Amino acid sequence: MKKAFSQFVILYTKDIRLEMRSKETLLPMFVFGLLVLTIFNFAFDFPPDQIMSATGGMLWIALTFSMTLGISRSFGLEKEYGSLDSTLLAPVDRGLIFLGKLLSNFTVALIQEVLLLPFLFLFFNIPMFPAFPWFISVILLGTFGFCAVATLFSAVTLNARMREVMLPLLVFPIYIPAVIGAVRATTSIISGEPLAWAFAWIRLLIVFDIIFVTLAYLLFEYVLEE
Amino acid sequence: MNYLFAAFCFIWIVLFGYLRFLQKRLKALQQEISLLKEAIRKSLPDEGGR
Amino acid sequence: MKNRSFIWTVLSYSLLIAMLIDLYLVLLVAPTERTMGDVQRIFYFHVPSAWVAFLAFFTVFFGSVAYIATRNVRYDRQAIASAEIGVAFCTIVLVTGPIWARPVWGIWWTWDPRLTSTLVLWLIYASYLLLRGFIEDPGRRAILSAVVGIVGFVDVPIVYMSIRWWRTQHPSPVFAGGAESGLDPDMKIVFFFSLAVFMLLYAVLQGLSIQIKRVESDVVELSRRAAEKE
């Protein structure tokens, strides 16, 4: 158990270090997210009183699109650098490789969100609301679930042609239940509806995260076998 | 009534489309098999073409 | 082997006859529905298609799990054949549904839970088929698509539940009730006959497709060996 944990930490720091050295994933993700938010502003010219009901949707589209962009590179980058083969040769449980990758993708996604969220509030003039911690928890849960599904499928598409195209095609249909939950919860929290409504959706997100992290962890060893 | 007709037509189109798809694959297979036979015949000329 | 091809002949001819009888029953024997009229006859093909699609997607799941557990190519062929057939029948459901809805509800499409889930189902398995087309190595293709087949199927009930919650908070403008409730006995007979015919059709298509795939992989194997010899 202790050994597994230290292996996991090594895998995780390796991924993060790789990313932080180049910021090759983080910066494009952030700029793309910003771009999506800007385009939304042109696409829907909402009057100020209706903007609340659309913010959840806009936020999650921007987040899922930019995360797809980032995660589609997560195994591809390692393959280019040749570090994937050596990781696979190491006597490490494949599930741990998955967890390390998931956590590092999640970390990068969170950094991007910290950068991006202020712009959401700024662009659409959203006032501060009291249930802010719950808003954060929705963001965390939704992002985590997305990273789990996308990390698994980015390994699946690693050996496919057209892998950048296939990744979103596989991830988005699977992620639909979570996107419904995340959007409804975000919107209801931002527009100040009773918190009980958001809780129902948060529960859905938790169930989604548990099911898909477990499933991906179990299936990952078959994905990367060579 | 027209709607019923349209729905029926569509069902038949999909069914025949799928059969056509299978047929195409079968045809490709037959071609490949005849190519293989040809190759085998060429590589074993002294055994009476088998 | 000879016995098998005899069964096949019997099966295909009885399917043909059953399909003709079914057409006759649906168009001429089944009573006309009072409010919807003749359009309701779509029901006898729409609903069985949906059942076939669900059964086929379940077979994809079963084949995927069995492939991962046993690594027997048989199960991979089962999964891919069913995925193709499932998407075909799902397409029938998604197209005949709106054709039926238009004269009855007055709209082509509504984001009701059942319609939406069927659409999501179609999307999941369409991308499953696309993925298979993009992986060259047969072994990799089998294992990777098995993973997608499992994840996709596990997602189905979650999709359905989440969409139902989503819709109950925002009631849809039309009432999307099925015709199953209080079905006339004659209708019931025709429906179950139709269902049986569609299941038989599925079985025949599945068998056919699996056979073609088996020959396909044999041929690939042979040409690989032929290439090695040269």
Count of helical segments of chain A?
A: 9
Helix content of chain A: over 70%
Tell me the helix content of chain B.
over 70%
- Please give the alpha-carbon distance between the first and last residues of chain B: 60 Å
Distance between the termini of chain A: 26 Å
What is the structure about, briefly put?
The complex is a heterotrimer of chains A (226), B (50) and C (230). Chain A is built from nine helices and no strands.
Q: What does it look like?
A:
The complex is a heterotrimer of chains A (226), B (50) and C (230). Chain A has helices at residues 2-22, 26-43, 51-71, 74-81, 83-89, 94-123, 132-156, 163-190, 195-223. With 226 residues, chain A is mainly α. Chain B has one domain. Chain B has 50 residues and is mostly helical. Chain C is an all-alpha fold and 230 residues long. Chain C has one domain (35-173, 181-224). Helices cover 82% and strands 0% of the residues of chain C. Chain C is flat. Classes of the chains: A mainly alpha (226), B mainly alpha (50), C mainly alpha (230). Chains in contact: A-C, B-C. The interface between B and C is medium-sized, with 24 and 33 residues.
Give the arrangement of secondary structure elements.
The complex is a heterotrimer of chains A (226), B (50) and C (230).
Chain A: H1 2-22, H2 26-43, H3 51-71, H4 74-81, H5 83-89, H6 94-123, H7 132-156, H8 163-190, H9 195-223
Helix pairs in contact in A: 1-6, 2-3, 2-6, 3-6, 3-7, 3-8, 6-7, 6-9, 7-8, 7-9, 8-9
Chain B: H1 2-43
Chain C: H1 2-29, H2 43-70, H3 73-105, H4 113-134, H5 138-169, H6 185-229
Search tags:
heterotrimer, A: 226 residues, mainly alpha, 9 helices, B: 50 residues, 0% strand, rod-shaped
